[in-house]
Amino acid sequence: MLQQYGLGLGLSSAPLVTKARTRSITAENPNGEKGQGGKEANHLGTGRKGRPAITLKQGDEVTLAEVQGTGIIQHFWITVTDKTGKGHAGQFVLRDLVLRMYWDDETEPSVDVPLGDFFCNGFGVRTNVSSLPICVVPTGGMNCYIPMPFRKSAKITIVNQHAVDIGGFFYAFNYTLVDELPENTAYFHAQWRREAVTERGKDYTILDNVKGEGQYIGTYLAWAALERNWWGEGEIKFYMDGDDEWPTICGTGVEDYVGGAWCFNNMKTNEPESYSTPYLGYQFYKETTEIDAWYGHDVPMHGMYRWHLPDPIRFERDLRVTIQQIGHDHAQLFERSDDVASVAYWYQMEPHAPFPALPPANRRWPR
After folding, report:
1. What top-level branch of life does the organism fall under (predicted)?
2. Cis peptide preceding 15, ω within 30 of 0
3. Of the chain's two ends, which shows fewer C-beta atoms within 10 Å, N or C?
4. Distance between terminal CA atoms of the chain?
């Protein structure tokens, strides 16, 4: 039973007592030590909320959590300001902070994603999310419930590539220590990519160069529509286990992939309608052509997620995931070019191939 390894299954496992040992890392107990939390002092005295948050120095990679031994990160929560000033350099904290995770003393991260995008908050903009693995609640409380097991060690860092220091960075990593994990336990991975201008007729790559055995569990898309008319006719494709020219799994459209239909259109208002559910959502929609004094011409922006938790995409040797940019002009399909960013979430047995290098912060900023 997975419960004995600390991999709980929800309400059904709540009454089951195991030998897993619960720990938590916060700014009040940065090493997660037993009986060592909340000891910092302030003007109210010792143990009276003396160190609830930290400051991220500009340019630093700060270790938020480091654990030795075998265990599972079961939940973590982060909140931080999303702006430090006007203009691009102060607006996009959620794209300028990079979340990284390292398992079992590896030197290449298994997670390398801008903080906001990891939590399905692309474009550097806060938005609420009510999904099962990721929840973002007012105001900017970012929660992750994806289980993240490790056998030897875990290290989680945040990189501040913003223009200035950022104060008031709050976090909590809740995990269990266990004696062992099942042999078939894989490691969590997440990767961010972006093409600011996609090439017409060429599918955008969400994930590539995955070798080994594992399962794909989710996609987040931050899609800025650069051309007129409906933008979401493209099909998602999963190439697995030796697929070359043609994929094993091919979707029917972008809105279809995230569980929507007919351009997300509300037939009464004739406007797109957003939604956020446990496994899929179109939770961010910004449609404007106004000329903004700071940013110039804004473009329509669309944030979407799809979790493959009840239906993971399983692979035995390799995996590649792409999505097309195809539109419809009310008469016919047409090839189009858009600004697409994505996060791929998956489990695989280690080792993993090194990720493509993240572009510098100002090349990650949205339009």
Report:
1. Bacteria
2. no
3. N
4. 48
**Tokens standing for residue 312:** 């993971």
CA atoms within 13 A on the CB side of 296: 3
Find out whether 104 and 151 touch, Cβ atoms under 8 Å.
yes
Task: Give the separation between CA 241 and CA 318, rounded to whole angstroms.
Answer: 5
Task: Quote the CA–CA distance of 26 and 40 in Å, as a whole number.
Answer: 12
Q: Which of 51, 343, 90 shows the shortest CA–CA distance to 207? A: 343
Tell whether pTM > 0.70. Answer: yes
Which DSSP category does 90 fall into?
H
Element holding 72 (H helix, E strand): strand 71-79
Token pair belonging to 37: 């939390």
pLDDT, tens digit, 9 for 90 and up, residues 263-305: 999 989 988 899 999 999 999 887 654 555 444 456 889 999 9
Other beta carbons less than 10 A from residue 51's beta carbon: 15
CA–CA dist 42, 50 (Å, integer): 5
pLDDT (tens digit, 9 = 90+) per residue, 201-228?
999 999 999 999 999 999 999 999 999 9
Q: Would you state the structure tokens that stand for residue 217, as one six-digit string?
A: 């569990």
User: Hey, what are 329's tokens?
Assistant: 């002009």
State residue 295's pLDDT score.
44
